[in-house]
Automatic annotation (TrEMBL):
Keywords: Membrane, Transmembrane, Transmembrane helix. This is DUF2637 domain-containing protein. InterPro entries: DUF2637. It comes from Microbispora hainanensis. The chain crosses the membrane at residues 12-35, 47-70, 79-98, 104-124. The lineage of its organism: Bacteria, Bacillati, Actinomycetota, Actinomycetes, Streptosporangiales. It comes from the Bacteria.
Amino acid sequence: MGEPSTHAVRRIQRTTIAGVALLALIAAVVSFRHMHELCLRHGEDHLAAVLIPLAVDGLIVVASMSILLANHYGSRGGLLAWSLLVVGSLASLGANVAVAEPSLIGRVIAAWPSLALIGSYELLMCQIRRCAGGRAEAQELPVFSPDPPANAEADPVELQEDQEEDTTHRLASMGVVYG
């Protein structure tokens, strides 16, 4: 059996992305409502009860996008991004289950949107990794080293300008543009 056509692969990826986006929207709405209710139940004022769910969902979005970008360049993402995604997902899932009807069915129903998003997002990452693996050579994201320069007598301002210029060139070669 041969490889699927580029057109078919793109159609599958677009459908997967649309599905993940829809599940993300559903999970965000359900999660927001549950976390909001949970915050109010535990003494948070109305403003905090609005902001806390946004902070949790925002963390999930930022971690997900970091992993997505890393996957696009052939990497699985870093420990920090995955850790924050897991923590945010567990907080969301926990809030959903905490406010659910106290029965097995009630808890499964409340947990379902988060679980569906987590699973579908990982399926999307698998697709992206497979496509990135098919590229001739994956590009690595720039790494910023806190180590001091080898030439300690060099002008620190000049070294920083050189490092910034090098980083800008590497990012531009990957298609990252600052406006």
